[in-house]
Amino acid sequence: MRSTASIMHLDLDAFFASVEQRDKPSLRGRPVIVGGIGPRGVVATASYEARVHGVRSAMRTAEARARCPHAAFLGGRFDAYREASRIVMERLREETEVIEPLSLDEAFVDLGAGPTFDPDRVEDIVAAIRADIANLTGGLTASVGVASSKLMAKIASEINKPDGVFVVEPGTEADVLGPMQATVIPGVGPATAERLRRVGILTVEDLRSPSEDELVRLLGQSSGRSLHRMARADDDRPVMASRETKSVSVEDTFEQDISDRVQLEAIIERMARSVSGRLRKNGLSGRTVTLKMRHHDFETHTRSTTLSNPTDNARILATTARGLLAGEDISNGLRLLGVGVSGLADWVQDDLFATDEDDDVEDEVVEETVTRPTRWYPGMDVHHDDHGDGWVWGSGLGRVTVRFETRWTPPGPVHTFLADDPALGAGHTGTFDA
DNA sequence: TCTGGGGTCCTAGGACCC
DNA sequence: TCTGGGGTCCTAGGACCC
């Protein structure tokens, strides 16, 4: 915690809805709700006119419709939001390079890292930034908090929202924080709040009573230690100007549950292409492929596998993800499916002009349906058949289809297989050595 | 006709290696 | 031969954030 109020948190007010109202004058002064507009949609952002009627983010759109039937329900125009966000972030960067965007509509700014920062003029600096944002974006408003730490700046930006500013005077942090609900501390969500409530902790003040060890016992190492400090407004986390991407994923909730494997596999193909495209655009590739499945009863499971080499290739991602689906019982239907990649590496892209079609050039795909394999892979399910005359493969009860793929993906060839033994009712996927 | 999509971070257990 | 500890990687799940 530094001695001057020089960390700013800026939060654009009702961002998606405000962009819509800016671009469509007929929506100004009216309730606007942006989010999923299908039967299973939820609200992403509600304008303040809609919040009056109790509409909140993450609320089901069906409920929002019931509460506020006269609102405009919009699906969202992310290109417009990204552009508005870019303009705002660019303006913030004029203050200092040390800005940390948290999302399209939020960022920390280390004002103290600016070349000409004067702590006595914080109010003027903030006023100039907010005026510029309004001018540059066609009237978007922002709420701002300034304090000696990220924690207090973030909390302060909520205090005079919307279109307001709050500066926490250095030295008053703990006093400002004490009377607030423990849930104002970022990271204290519903589950943690409930655990705390059960031991009588409601406010930040209450959170100062237990020792660090007691909080660790209650909430685990990481949360326990950090909450013990946060409760005392003790926070020296730096504003981080750049953060590397850790994962890339796509998911979709269907309007109706899907139990048809062929249909799900086709969706996986589409998602794999989407993930692949985004990996390539960012010069990334990853080793761990994750399939996310939400069942009809909302039970959610992930299945993942780690390849021996990073890939950004749509077909490898699709083959791998399909293999992960193969072992799952989907007879009651899935409401959501997702494909993700993590374990990312940024490799030097050696073939900038390659297209998806070009990728096929050096690929080798061998598919065989056999009772005995002609090639072997690690972990191949081979066991001795006591009733027969030797070693069998898979269940030993029938034909097994194996698809071996070799693809040349920098920095080297990637060999994957997908084995499907109907009698086992399970697919087996992974990598093999050539 | 309950409950989005895109992320991050943490925990915990097992495998494996030294 | 037995026991133990630590570190790292992998998988799965969960909490949380906007």
Automatic annotation (TrEMBL):
GO terms for molecular function: damaged DNA binding; DNA-directed DNA polymerase activity; magnesium ion binding. Residues 7-189 form the UmuC domain. Keywords: Cytoplasm, DNA damage, DNA repair, DNA replication, DNA-binding, DNA-directed DNA polymerase, Magnesium, Metal-binding, Mutator protein, Nucleotidyltransferase, Transferase. It catalyses: DNA(n) + a 2'-deoxyribonucleoside 5'-triphosphate = DNA(n+1) + diphosphate. Its cofactor is Mg(2+). The keyword Metal-binding applies. InterPro entries: DNA/RNA_pol_sf, DNA_pol_Y-fam_lit_finger_sf, DNA_pol_Y-fam_little_finger, DNA_polymerase-Y, DNApol_IV, IMS_HHH_1, Rev_trsase/Diguanyl_cyclase, UmuC. Poorly processive, error-prone DNA polymerase involved in untargeted mutagenesis. Copies undamaged DNA at stalled replication forks, which arise in vivo from mismatched or misaligned primer ends. These misaligned primers can be extended by PolIV. Exhibits no 3'-5' exonuclease (proofreading) activity. May be involved in translesional synthesis, in conjunction with the beta clamp from PolIII. Monomer. HAMAP family: DNApol_IV (MF_01113). This is DNA polymerase IV. It comes from Aeromicrobium ginsengisoli.
